[in-house]
Amino acid sequence: MSLPDPLERLFAWIEANGYYIDTPNGRLGFLYSAQTIADEHTDDGRPGGTDIEFAAEGNVNLRYWFRSEDPDLMNRLCVFAKTGGDGSMAAFWLADDGTQKIVHLGSGSGSTTVCVLADDPVDFLRLLAIGYDEICWGDELSEPPNASGEFIVQPNRAFAAWVAETFKVTIPERGTDIVRHLASMGDDHSPDPFWTWARAHTG
Asked: Rounded distance, CA 136 to CA 102, Å?
């Protein structure tokens, strides 16, 4: 398993913009100034686009999610981000066919989304650039950001422009333009390969 070049470029962009904090447990990276988000956050909205926290977590805590410490299972995953305040995670997953995908593991106490977020790391960056508050809420990804109108997240235009210009891509309007098979823990079946694999290893 390896860190894809687009993610290496993302982390370099985060560092160049100073969007990180150092903690006793290591460095945390963001897509926007965490201090600005905190200062300008109101009951009606906030700036900064998608809220996501990058960290080199690895697979140490996945034993709680899978209720297993089987190395053959753990070594197929590497967590690299928290996708929501509920503790949901994004991870690299080594699929059965040998390809590396980016997947979502919902916390279960909040988000229950379990699926492949992107087959390609650039598509993952495009998903982040759309501008949802948090990408852990799968039921929101079929609509553009702020569809409810209850809490308005201002777009992170600088990040979206960087993604578009660096990788020569467009930014879609909604998450389901990238996430092909949204799936949840409680679903009876799904064509999503990660949901199928996770279900087989969690019962």
From this structure: 13
Output helix, strand, coil percentages for the chain, rounded to the nearest 5.
35, 20, 45
Residue 90 forms beta bridges with which residues? 81, 104
Q: Quick one: which H or E segment has residue 104?
A: strand 100-105
Please state, as a whole number, how many other Cβ atoms lie within 10 Å of the Cβ of residue 198.
Answer: 21
Instruction: Name the token pair of 62.
Output: 């996945």
Of 38, 9, 46, residue with least CA distance to 152 = 46
Q: Is the dihedral of CA 8, 12, 13, 15 positive or negative?
A: positive
Q: Note the pLDDT tens digit of each residue in 48-105.
A: 999 999 998 878 889 889 888 888 888 999 999 999 999 999 999 999 999 999 999 9
Domain ranges of the chain: 5-198
Write down the residue that tokens 């995953």 correspond to: 77
* CB of 196 closer than 8 Å to CB of 190: yes
Amino acid sitting at position 43: D
Q: Which residue has the tokens 């956050």?
A: 41
The residues facing 46 across adjacent strands are 153
